[in-house]
Amino acid sequence: MKRKLKVIVVGNGVAGMSFALRLADRMKTEGVAIHMLSRTGPEYSNSNAAQGGVAAVIHPLDSWEQHRDDTLEVGGGRCEPAVVELVVKEGAACIRELLDQGARFDTDDRGGLNAAREGGHSAARVVHRGDRTGAELVRVLQAQVKLNPNISVTETLMALDLLVTDDRLGRRCNGIRTIDVGSGEIKLHHADVVVLATGGAGQVYRHTTNPAGATGSGVAMAMRAGVPLRDMAFVQFHPTALYAPEQEATFLVSEAVRGAGAVLLQPNGERLMDGVHHMGDLAPRNVVARAIHAVMRQQNAPHVWLDATLIREARFAREFPMIQAHCWSLGLDPAREPIPVMPAAHYICGGIRTDAQGRTGLDGLYALGECAGSGLHGADRLASNSLLEALVIPKHAANSVMSSGVQNALPHDAVTGRYHFTGPSFLTITTMKTLRDRMMDQVGIVREDAGLHAAWRDLKKIRQDMERAWASGERSMELFDLRDLVMVARAICGQAIEEPRNAGTHWNADANDDHSLATVRMN
Ligand code: SIN
Q1: 151 DSSP β-pair partners
Q2: Cα–Cα distance between 224 and 235 in angstroms, integer?
Q3: Residue among 185, 191, 119, 124 at smallest CA distance from 152
């Protein structure tokens, strides 16, 4: 009997789950065994944290051409136009499908979908469920994954490395090596196809809206296997994370709050975006984040203000219940007073280089969602295009995997050892802190030649610290994470050094090009 196609999906956010469901559906008759593995449940994924929504053309006066143009404009001339077109054209169909699957999006008085405004969009086209849209998508997809007999799920495995073979079939990925985060067991899992959907890498920065698991593990694994990346210099900083220095995690205040009428204020109370960009407070994120950064520097202020008092309290409560509750828990009341905000690392626009079907430069390996560099986002991501990408490209990836077929016989999965976890050493903890606080601070919103080169030199030295920690017997999850974070940091910094000109989120103050004038503060 012909064996089933064996597929491993690493990561359980929207991209991973929508791929698994599509493939399971397409291959019902041929047979497929999909194993989704991750370190934690999807409630800890980047997708689950997404507040804003899914960008989709749902209004009769809007068009996919306008959505395309907004995406290309925000992407600073660095998008792949064919990928942009493919993705934005399928927005409305994705929303219809999600509704059929039971998704509950916010509606207006007449029962139509209520689309919000976000930065860089020329129309209101962000379909959302309050300020917890990602969680709604995760709920709908996870319910289907649980019921699907062709999908198995393990939520205690950290992927360490790709298994790569080079034989008569050529160089290809045929599995992964994992560590069980509970038992420390190391195991090889073989598969015809491996799909990386590991999410973001915001943890490489000190302030990030991303959850703790956003360590760039997929990108790091791909790098170790020599798989090409793209656009890693382009790191999007969200303009409005809540400033709360006593809190460990950084909390996002959705851009939809500005879409509903909130405005940014300088520390002295003056409007921050006046005279900066014709879209004002809803300018592309790189423009707003840089304007805030400049004001914070000039006025030596740890934050600026977001004034949402013009939004009616009932509307705020209805559309942003999580943000309201979080603010209240910190003694802030957005209905009555401006709240303190600052930019924080939010999204890696690049990633593992893929085509529009998620295929990477290594046979048998696909990448989807934030860890992939499909070319959709270019130098800056249009708000809420990422959940859309995580729904559209997996569909095409599933078609591609289906036609790739079963390879020759696979080796059996095997346990190859066990680490006895030690907990992190002082060296690992301090190295992680230095990476985030000092080195990557030089590779942030505004970069300079000297800072980039200093960070690059320091990043090379970190390797020795990690080797010392390993040689001293340390076996901790923090050390595995550090290994990934340092690789991703090197990719970001290295590509930032090589970027010939400023575009989107990459801003080198020493680059002397005309384009930079377009985003300099005018007042
Ligand atoms: C937000 O709600 O502001 C974030 C949405 C996104 O990053 O696309």
Answers
A1: 34
A2: 21
A3: 191
Contacts of 158 by beta carbon, 8 Å cutoff, 6+ apart? 39, 178, 179, 181, 217, 477, 480
Q: How far is the CA of 157 from the centre of ligand 1 (A)?
A: 28
Give the residue, out of 51, 126, 242, with the most ligand 1 atoms within 8 A of its beta carbon, to mutate for a pocket test: 51
Please state the rounded mean pLDDT for residues 147-161: 97
Task: List pLDDT tens digits, range 308-332.
Answer: 999 999 999 999 999 999 999 999 9
pLDDT digits (tens, 9 = 90+) for 118-145: 999 999 999 999 999 999 999 999 999 9
CA of 245 to the centre of ligand 1 (A): 22
User: Which domains are present in the chain?
Assistant: 5-53+131-158+349-415 (3.50.50.60), 239-344 (3.90.700.10), 422-474+476-498 (1.20.58.100)
Q: Which residues form ligand 1's pocket by a CB distance below 6 Å?
A: 50-52, 254-256, 383-384, 386
Please identify, by atom number, the ligand 1 atom nearest to the C-alpha of residue 346: 7
Please give the Cα distance from 266 to 343 (Å, whole number): 14
pTM: 0.95
Confidence of residue 44 (pLDDT cuts 50, 70, 90): confident
- Distance (angstroms) between ligand 1 centre and the Cα of 256 equals 8
Of 70, 118, 125, 377, which is best to mutate to test ligand 1, by the most ligand atoms within 8 angstroms of its C-beta? 118
Looking at residue 1, its pLDDT comes to 67
Examine the pLDDT at 505 and tell me if it is beyond 70: yes
DSSP label at residue 503: B
Q: Which residues contact 411 (CB under 8 A, 6 or more apart)?
A: 188, 190
